[in-house]
Amino acid sequence: MSPSRHAVFGHPVAHSLSPRIHAAFAAQTGIALQYEAIEVAPEAFTASLASFAAAGGSGANVTLPLKEAAFALCADTSARARRAGAVNTLIRENGGWRGDNTDGAGLLRDLGDRQGLDLRERRTLLLGAGGAARGVAPALLDAGIGELFVINRDSARADALVDAQEQPGRVHSRYYTDLTALGEFDLIVNATSAARNGGLQKLPMSLVGARTACVDLSYGEASIPFLAWARAASAHDAVDGLGMLVEQAAESFALWHGVRPETDGVYAELRGRNAALVTAD
Ligand code: ATR
Q1: pTM above 0.90, yes or no
Q2: N or C, fewer C-beta in 10 Å, the chain?
Q3: Catalytic residue among 5, 22, 67, 98
Q4: Annotated domain spans of the chain
Q5: Among the CATH numbers 3.40.50.10860, 2.102.10.10, 3.40.50.300, 3.40.30.10, which is that of 4-101+243-273?
Q6: How many whole angstroms from 206 Cα to the centroid of ligand 1?
Q7: Is position 67 annotated as part of the catalytic site?
């Protein structure tokens, strides 16, 4: 049987760990799989995806900055993708694409099962309102966090994210200039791509208390500035997005192949390679 054809689309995507993760899952489950990284600028995404489908592509991951564009071109979407307005997983079905979003489930798996964090009642600050932020906000709310404050440079995007949650008493939009007045948070999630785009705004250490968990959705070098700030502020936990990456990949793999791979081995291997860059306290 010829291997099923999969890919991750992104811009940039060359350093994506997804091909390596899916190859490990395929070896573990005995599923024949071809998985490549396809670099594509946003304006060329639709055409590139169409040629991938024409060449037999049956499933794809989508990473930044294409998650909202992917949502827009799906014939069908899951409820969680619709809540996020963003898609990270494409499944070929009936000659079109069905879109899903496994980012939120992946984050919860990592924070709950691997890091042992109980998210319930946590007063939460979400930095960013792009595709990554939209993917995780509904899952965090479903996991029982307390109030959620969303801050983004482009405040209209923060407002749109907040409105989409439809919980006005619980989810609020704020400005970076409000940060010093907001007090302590129990959970702070960096969902911006600031480390790759000129650097994050200065964050006051007054945001962090003795029990605060700080989570960066990125991994490797992109996670260093925010997690260095978290450690300098004596955060209780400083967690990068490597575990989420592996867990969202496992959720995508299950959607495509009907079997959820075991993730601890792959996570440990990647963590070993990235040990100097990413440590969870
Ligand atoms: P992703 O899929 O990673 O979310 P995205 O949709 O392009 O990619 O969103 C990037 C996020 O990082 C946005 O919230 C963006 O803020 P704006 O909407 O105001 O552009 C945020 N971001 C990027 N660079 C930033 C920086 N230097 N400082 C603060 N936020 C930044």
Answers
A1: yes
A2: N
A3: 67
A4: 4-101+243-273, 104-242
A5: 3.40.50.10860
A6: 23
A7: yes
* CB of 193 shorter than 6 A to ligand 1: yes
Please state which architecture CATH assigns to domain 104-242. Answer: 3-Layer(aba) Sandwich (3.40)
- Domains 4-101+243-273 and 104-242 agree in fold: yes
CA of residue 193 to ligand 1 center, whole Å = 5
**pLDDT digit string, tens, across residues 132-169:** 899 999 999 999 999 999 999 999 999 999 999 999 99
Distance CA 56, CA 74 (A): 17
